[in-house]
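Quiz preparation item.
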């Protein structure tokens, strides 16, 4: 009885997160804001369904499901990386380096730093620490 309540709770929570993530993907105005909906809320929604499936197979069917565990780990590892790649692509397509806020240091944003500029800044930093 307690296991069935836990499985049901995971499914309801997963449905709420999926709905909120889908709604955010449609309603948020800016692409950088829309990025948070699928990478955060919808990932938690799918994760909740996978956890409910793992609980069902372990406690009701009586066998451990390694597949759901691997899918959950893969999902939680790849969703933030995908969101990061989409954000960097958006920055390079729509913004010039001068449009971005300051980084607070001597180096520019990572996507806008050339190899020569990086080598120059690192050489200057080594010269300051080595002296």
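Solution:
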């Amino acid at each position: 009885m307690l296991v069935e309540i836990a499985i049901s709770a995971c499914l309801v929570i997963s449905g709420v997160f999926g709905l909120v993530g889908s709604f955010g993907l449609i309603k948020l105005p800016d692409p950088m804001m829309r990025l948070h909906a699928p990478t955060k809320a919808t990932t938690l929604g799918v994760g909740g369904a996978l956890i409910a499936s793992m609980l069902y197979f372990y406690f009701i069917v009586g066998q451990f499901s390694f597949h759901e565990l691997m899918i959950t780990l893969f999902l939680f590892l790849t969703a933030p990386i995908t969101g990061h790649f989409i954000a960097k692509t958006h920055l390079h397509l729509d913004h010039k380096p001068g449009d971005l806020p300051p980084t607070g240091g001597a180096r520019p944003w990572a996507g806008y730093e050339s190899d020569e500029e990086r080598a120059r800044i690192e050489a200057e930093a080594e010269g300051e620490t080595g002296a």
